[in-house]
Amino acid sequence: MAQRKPRALVAGNWKMNGLKGSRKELAALSRLLERASGKPACEIMICPPATLLMAFREAAKGTGIKIGAQDCHVSESGAHTGDLSAVMMKDAGAKAIIVGHSERRADHGESNNLVRAKAEAAHAAGLVAIICLGETIEERNDNATLRVVGSQLKNSLPDAVTAANTVIAYEPVWAIGTGLTPTADDVKKVHAHIRKRLAAEVGDEVASRVRILYGGSVKPSNAVELMAVENVDGALVGGASLQAADFFGIISAYL
Ligand code: PGA
For 214-250, b where at least 16 C-beta lie within 10 A, e where not — what string? Predict the structure, then answer.
């Protein structure tokens, strides 16, 4: 039976960027979407810093743009000074949480086990977990990409994965914020491998419908090519999601 392609997702990861005035970028994006010739065939999400979640939830009302968060603690509440729980993100307006971004794995020493626990916390709060995977430049040069990404996937994946509650984002660490991207052929190989490893964990049916995003220096000029690659179901966008015009340029790959 032919599998239906999952609905694509283009998500903007604002990282530690954005103050309250940044709401104007969301308004500008919504105007661009309104003026577009058709409706993009993808879901659109912005993951601002946690301080902007509530303001963005209000600003996004009626626009169809979803709001997501960038990280969460594994617990629901408790004595964890400075941390924020998945339930709090939901309360503030998030529909999804990015977990295991390479910047968190590197800057905060997050292990696959911790990433899995965070994905479970997102699920327990009724949110989508966007689980990030990706190899470093050293691992790529050692031809270890598929092995590293496969093992991150297996070990970061929570129980009870469904196509609705989990998104995978393949983000080669060396492509993030550098302007470098893998070739379309490389992306195709890694995404096919992720789909296969996913099927081994959750079965063919679920694996065929889980969205696998590509992330790392996606911009308007390469979005059409990257989004057309087999098994690429959207993008996780950093730098180019901060300006409405650039982000819209990427979303336009689905217009
Ligand atoms: P970039 O970041 O688009 O700025 O390369 C992507 C990401 O880290 O999610």
Answer: bbbbbbbebbeebbebebbbbbbbbbbbbebebbbbb
